[in-house]
Each structure stands twice: as C-alpha cells, then as structure tokens.
Amino acid sequence: xxxxxxxxxxxxxxxxxxxxxxxxxxxxxxxxxxxxxxxxxxxxxxxxxxxxxxxxxxxxxxxxxxxxxxxxxxxxxxxxxxxxxxxxxxxxxxxxxxxxxxxxxxxxxxxxxxxxxxxxxxxxxxxxxxxxxxxxxxxxxxxxxxxxxxxxxxxxxxxxxxxxxxxxxxxxxxxxxxxxxxxxxxxxxxxxxxxxxxxxxxxxxxxxxxxxxxxxxxxxxxxxxxxxxxxxxxxxxxxxxxxxxxxxxxxxxxxxxxxxxxxxxxxxxxx
Length: 271
Fold this sequence. Notes:
Layout: E1 4-8, H1 26-39, E2 44-48, H2 49-53, H3 57-65, E3 72-74, H4 88-103, E4 108-111, H5 114-117, H6 125-146, E5 149-152, H7 166-176, E6 181-186, H8 187-192, H9 199-203, E7 207-212, H10 227-238, E8 244-247, H11 254-268
Parallel strand pairs: 1-2, 1-8, 2-3, 3-4, 4-5, 5-6, 6-7, 7-8
C-alpha cells in the first residue's frame, strides 16, 4: 500500500466567478470542490464537518444520490460549543455529524477544534484534561458505531492549550488505548511548535492521517522546492508511512494551485 493524496474542499470564494457569491449553496461548494479535486488527480476528498452540516436535509440527499464520497473530515466541533461544558446540544450535533459522515463513506474525522477544546484559564488543567479525555472516550464509541477513525490533531499554542505536539498526542492515544482513536501529524503545527520531524519515526504506528502545506505561509505547496516539505516527506517515507496525506491550506488560485501541488507531492514522496 502506498501513500494516497487528498485535498480539502475550500470555501465558496474559490469557486468560478458568479454575479452573486451567495448564490452558491453549501451543496454547490461540495459538488464543485469534490469534482475539482478528483479531476486534478487526487485520490480522495477532505471536507470540514461544518460544511457538511450546513447542507439542508434535501441537499444532503442529493449528495448521497450523486454518490459523492468524502474520505476525511476536519474542523470536527465548532467553536460555539465548549467541550468541557458537555451540553446535550453539542452531542446532538456530533451524533448527526457522524451519521452524515458515514453516509458519504468517511473513514477519518480529524479532531482539531482548537476553540472548542481549549481548557479555560480559570479551570485546573487536570480537571479540563479529564473532561477532554472523557469526550474522546465517548467519541470513540460513536466512531466504532459508524466505522470511522478519530484522529487526534496536535495544534499549536496559538490555537489551543491541549495537545500541542505529535508526541503528546501519541502518549494520550496510548494511555486511552481506544479501538478507533489514532493521531495526525500536521506540518504547520509541528513547525510552529518546533517539533522535530524525527518524532514521526517514533509515533508512526499511531499516525493515521497527515496534513501538509507550506509551513512558513500555510499556503498550498507548489512546484517550487521547499526544504521543510521535503524533510517532512523524508521523515514519513523513512518511517514507512503509507496512509493519507491531505493538503490543508490557503490558496491563491485553487484549481491551478492544486494541479501544481499534486505534481510536487508525488515527486517529494517518491521513494
């Protein structure tokens, strides 16, 4: 099995020009984005949970009817929910999200959600940690029910105060020892936290998903040489990583950017 490459569906601002951008529905964005990504040579599509959940029930049925498959999802819990508050409304949202994700053949849900998972300054850290661990345990049961893997995403200190390194995510994953919980490695967050890419070799048995971009600008990789991307790819190759790598970034020109990016990524990840 070899690495497969995916790309995140962007927002409506990257769609072809139209007189009124508001004319684009979330359904339009998913349909156009998924087609564009696959037509540019990617193996799969990634999407935010927020975009999926913003589709009306009627339009979601159209997504299913068109057999649109979205392998991975990110932005799991919106920031208006606070995980430590553990509200019924949050769990209603999460359960519906899992139901919808399963219907579009999802395999991975990335748990980043920096705003939602932040431990408040007025709470003892260990108390917040226990609440977040209980959240992950409960999500594992939903993940099992819907045959999806929950990938813990280490963020950076500007976005969260919980799980800031691949190593800490790995340690938590081993501590909880849950059937459907693994971890993610994101080049941008690792760069911000100055985490050595060598840690990938020590944690690869739990890494199920990877996010990539130009870590200096958080923009789409291009055909221009980038020493950080090459070093990241080398660490993954040396660790015999053979799963998914998704571009998660900002874009200047979505369609042209991702056409260049897939060429470059297939070259730097070639063994």
